[in-house]
Amino acid sequence: MSEPGEQVLTRNGGEELVVVAERGRQLIQDATGPWLRWLEAGDVFVVEGEEPERLVLTAGTDSRFSVVRLTPTGDQPLRWVP
């Protein structure tokens, strides 16, 4: 997943999305606000939570990124522990 322009990412409750910036700059933000983050090459951004979420990732033409979706196999939501 490295298309330039806007990409809508959806995350179901209990899942994690891992966004890896490989080249260039990307902007990731909650579709309805209130937060946004600029990602630079080498950054990794993890999105988690028990509620579903809709995100918008905007990438330039020289950008490259990957998105990994982690889905729980049991009843418990996934948690990211630094």
Notes on the protein architecture:
The mean pLDDT is 90. The chain is built from no helices and 7 strands. The protein has one domain: Sandwich (Jelly Rolls). It has a 4-stranded antiparallel sheet, with no helix packed on it. It has a 3-stranded antiparallel sheet with strand order 5-2-7, with no helix packed on it. With 82 residues, the chain is an all-beta fold.
Features:
82 residues; mainly beta; Jelly Rolls; four-stranded antiparallel beta sheet; three-stranded antiparallel beta sheet; 0% helix; globular
Topology:
Elements: E1 5-11, E2 16-23, E3 25-30, E4 36-40, E5 44-47, E6 53-59, E7 64-70
Antiparallel strand pairs: 1-6, 2-5, 2-7, 3-4, 3-6
In the predicted model, the low-confidence regions spanning at least 5 consecutive residues are none
Largest sheet: 4 strands, antiparallel
The rounded distance between the terminal residues' Cα atoms is 25 Å
Compressed to H and E, one letter per element, the order equals EEEEEEE
Radius of gyration, whole Å: 13 Å
CATH classification, class level: Mainly Beta
Assign the CATH architecture: Sandwich
Q: Quick one: overall form?
A: globular
Individual helix count: 0
